[in-house]
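Morning!

As promised:
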Amino acid sequence: MSEAASARSRLAADRAAGIGPLEPMLREWLPAQRWFAGKGREIGRLRAVSAAELLPPGSVPGLLHLLLDVDGDCYQLLLGIRPTPLPPALAPALIGHARSGPYTGSAVYEALGDPRLAAMLLERLRSPGTLGPLRFDRDPDAPIEAGLTPRPLSGEQTNSSLIYGDSYILKVFRRVGPGINPDLELPRALAAAGCARVPAPVAWYEAAPGGGEPLTLGVLQPYLRGSDDGWQLALRRLGSGADFTAEAHALGRATAEVHSALADALPTLALGPEQTARLAAGMTARLAATAREVPALRPYEAGLRGAFDALAASRGAGVPAQRIHGDLHLGQTLRTADGSWALIDFEGEPARPLADRRRPEPAVRDIAGILRSFDYAARSHRPFAPAWADACRAAFCEGYARTTGRDPREDPVLLRAYETDKAVYEARYESRHRPDWLHVPMAAIRRLSAPERPAHRMPPPVPGTTPHPKPPRRPLA
Ligand SMILES: Nc1ncnc2c1ncn2[C@@H]1O[C@H](COP(=O)(O)OP(=O)(O)O)[C@@H](O)[C@H]1O
Ligand SMILES: O=P(O)(O)O[C@H]1O[C@H](CO)[C@@H](O[C@H]2O[C@H](CO)[C@@H](O)[C@H](O)[C@H]2O)[C@H](O)[C@H]1O
């Protein structure tokens, strides 16, 4: 580290002690952020694990990088520091005003909303090296243009993203933990394996506070300009009564390609009967925990457990497990300008511990995620369009089978267990984040908890026909 850098890092360490004065504003601001996991609970312990000024002291604006331990979860914050008043364009980014400590009299705000600070981050990513506790790294073979105009990605997300000149997108991870984030690990592995279905990371940064295992903090990847979010595209098609089976089939093929590339590139294993029973027990435990949290689920708990019991009882031969996407749904798919499908956001379910998300699992977990997504889309439509969802689900499975030779419907016990587990996850997700949507997974939960009804309505798609949404069988919940 250069002398100047080490002086800056000493200063940052000194100033970490000065985080105290920022604490009240952070306590107020954090729970309002979509990415903050501890919503609904009062914050107890809040302390800085690491604090680093990324610009020389006295710079205006200043940039403070924080890793905060909030009740045991570690969050990444990038704070801009400017004299008050803030320029009007930055007003929406304001967090608060420092009334004491080293930043007395300054406005503290979300640095990602400040184009000057966002541009500085891109510059750091272009030049590998360390800065205080942060290490910047990049793919030496991928050129990164300088001076691109940044803009924050609008819309609430699990993390925060910046788009640079429609050329790159930088994801700044919010809740972070030790170990490489699968959203860096898997796209890099896929790129090395030559799989073009996933944008390849071109630069990234990490931290190793206290010399421990590095935490992935941000990843820069090509921005797929002109692409359509699969969820929005599906809703548009539904809205105009149009077919989506060709896209669903192609998405099944794309998903299968990614699964095959991951299975080739990274370790796989076969889950024996004991491991499968443990898997089923994990699903049952998640169901029980969710039923405690989401009262609407309680009447269905016993019925849902049947799917997991069947999984535990069904295994003699073993279930293949591999690295997978982990939270696949239509919102994680992009139909690119050339009409092909790409998959993004390999972080896995944000609420699961990182070590769990990095374990090999049956690929059907991802398949169940997409199948659930077709149901979500159909239920967002008025009137509910079950035939549309059924056709898409079948087409997706056929596309998957076309590439891998294995149709996920041939293992209905495994598929049902994973679809049930996903619906339970969604019930918890919706009750925490979007209570107005809880009725969507609840409809699936009612269906999946009734063993006498067919688990999956998946008639084979009729090529070249347009499924017309039928009137609702029962009113939307
Ligand atoms: N490489 C990309 N090209 C184009 N758009 C992208 C790309 N990566 C992400 N996006 C857009 O950004 C949104 C958020 O990205 P995502 O990885 O899902 O972040 P989060 O982890 O915050 O949910 C996506 O829904 C998509 O619209
Ligand atoms: O933020 P992430 O994209 O990592 O995923 C979380 O949020 C998703 C909602 O934005 C949630 O997905 C659920 O809603 C989707 C429609 O908005 C639907 O297509 C998915 O099938 C459904 O699971 C996802 O579960 C959650 O992890």
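The chain has 13 helices and 18 strands.

Hope this helps with the figure draft.
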